[in-house]
């Protein structure tokens, strides 16, 4: 079976083609990334970029898989969560293709897709999942048919915290250089830990107070390197703490880090320490598949389609706030 998947929830238009016929399951993986000239993502500008790139990315994916659209068994699309204008681009392309080529359409939740591609690539079986990206910070585990949220951010996401701080103090964009976030890089020269609010409430974290306090410290004259070091330590350690709580509660024997911020080597080292202390196996999704891509949508679409999940074209509307724990996962026990 071959499935084509379309990703367009934020800054990436990605088209992936996967097959369950070979161990080498990725037949195509094409992407176009929107990089704002300055500031954060502007949803409408990003969506214009995605719409412009969509035909070319789709063409490249079909060429590199050496197939035509009539060869695929189903078309999968990320219907949420994400930015409305961006989601609409992928949904429109997917509905048009499904209608024209008379293919089943499979709805995919973007967060579930990050998890499923992580499991497929790392070989983890039943881990505590730490999902860290620009828009998400959550600790999850599979329980009773769904990926359940054990802890999450109560306000902004980790990626958002780091990018916003970097932008406000003039460290970016770009925010990631050579695999390191600019805040991680700057923190290397930090020597002193400042007192910043460490907020863990139950199993949740909160970062907006930390952002405000870090910016205030910088504006009041603290060394930028010291502020970066302190910000990073507080943010990363609070995530490690809620991951540790989930390991204790669920008694799972693995931990897997997914999402765009998973690439941080500093954070990875902290997770290695956590895994050692708890005696569990640790998996980190490689950067290429930790960021948004079409392959993860295609792969999750394939799993869903084999479980009988399809959606009528007329009902295939976007869901900007589609939570991961609203999705049944019938392909896993
Ligand atoms: Fe993502």
Automatic annotation (TrEMBL):
Binds 1 Fe(2+) ion per subunit. It catalyses: L-threonylcarbamoyladenylate + adenosine(37) in tRNA = N(6)-L-threonylcarbamoyladenosine(37) in tRNA + AMP + H(+). Its cofactor is Fe(2+). GO terms for biological process: tRNA threonylcarbamoyladenosine modification. Keywords: Acyltransferase, Cytoplasm, Iron, Metal-binding, Transferase, tRNA processing. Its main location: cytoplasm. Substrate binds at residues 131-135, 163, 184, 264. Residues 30-299 form the Gcp-like domain. One of its GO terms (cellular component) is EKC/KEOPS complex. GO terms for molecular function: iron ion binding; tRNA N(6)-L-threonylcarbamoyladenine synthase activity. Fe cation binds at residues 110, 114, 131, 292. PROSITE patterns: GLYCOPROTEASE. Belongs to the KAE1 / TsaD family. Required for the formation of a threonylcarbamoyl group on adenosine at position 37 (t(6)A37) in tRNAs that read codons beginning with adenine. Is probably involved in the transfer of the threonylcarbamoyl moiety of threonylcarbamoyl-AMP (TC-AMP) to the N6 group of A37. This is tRNA N6-adenosine threonylcarbamoyltransferase. It comes from Ignisphaera aggregans.
């Amino acid at each position: 079976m071959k499935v084509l998947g379309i990703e367009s929830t934020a800054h990436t238009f990605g088209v992936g083609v996967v097959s369950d016929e070979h161990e080498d399951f990725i037949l195509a993986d094409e992407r176009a990334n929107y990089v704002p000239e300055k500031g954060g993502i502007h949803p409408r500008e990003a969506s214009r970029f995605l719409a412009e790139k969509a035909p070319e990315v789709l063409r490249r994916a079909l060429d590199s898989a050496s197939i035509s659209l009539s060869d695929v068994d189903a078309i999968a699309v990320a219907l949420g969560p994400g930015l409305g204008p961006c989601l609409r681009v992928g949904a429109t392309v997917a509905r048009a293709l499904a209608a024209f080529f008379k293919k089943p359409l499979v709805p995919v939740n973007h967060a579930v897709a990050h998890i499923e591609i992580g499991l497929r690539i790392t070989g983890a079986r039943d881990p505590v999942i730490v999902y860290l990206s620009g828009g998400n910070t959550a600790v999850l585990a599979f329980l009773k048919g769904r990926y359940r949220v054990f802890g999450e951010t109560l306000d902004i996401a980790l990626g958002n915290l780091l990018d916003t701080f970097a932008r406000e103090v003039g460290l970016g964009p770009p925010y990631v250089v050579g695999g390191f976030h600019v805040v991680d890089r700057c923190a290397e020269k930090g020597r002193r830990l400042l007192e910043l609010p460490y907020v863990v409430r139950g199993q949740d974290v909160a970062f907006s107070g930390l952002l405000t306090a870090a910016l205030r410290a910088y504006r009041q004259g603290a060394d930028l390197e010291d502020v970066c070091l302190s910000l990073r330590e507080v943010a990363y350690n609070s995530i490690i703490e809620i991951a540790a709580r989930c390991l204790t509660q669920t008694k799972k024997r693995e931990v897997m880090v997914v999402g765009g911020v998973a690439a941080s080597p500093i954070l990875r080292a902290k997770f290695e320490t956590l895994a050692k202390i708890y005696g569990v196996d640790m998996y980190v999704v490689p950067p290429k598949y930790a960021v948004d891509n079409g392959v993860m949508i295609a792969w999750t679409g394939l799993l869903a389609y084999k479980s009988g999940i399809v959606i009528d074209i007329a009902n295939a509307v976007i869901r900007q706030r589609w939570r991961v724990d609203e999705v049944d996962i019938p392909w896993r026990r």
